Amino acid sequence: MGAASLGSLGNIVGWPIFMTLDILAGLFWGAVSGEWKGASRRALIYNWMGVAVLVVAIAVISSGNAA
Prior knowledge:
Blueprint: H1 2-5, H2 10-33, H3 41-66
Helix pairs in contact: 2-3
C-alpha cells in the first residue's frame, strides 16, 4: 500500500524503505529484549554504522529519482 501511495517512485524507493524499517524494528526489539546486552562496543558501532549507511542509501536513491 505504501509503495502505491508513492506513485512512480514506489517500486524504487518503497522497497529500500520497507527493508530498512524491518532492520530497524529488529534492532529495536533486540535491544528491548536484551539481545544486544552482552555485545561489545565495536559490534554496536558496526551496527549503527550499518543503519547510517542504509539511511544514506535511501536518501541517495530518493534524491536521484526525484530529478
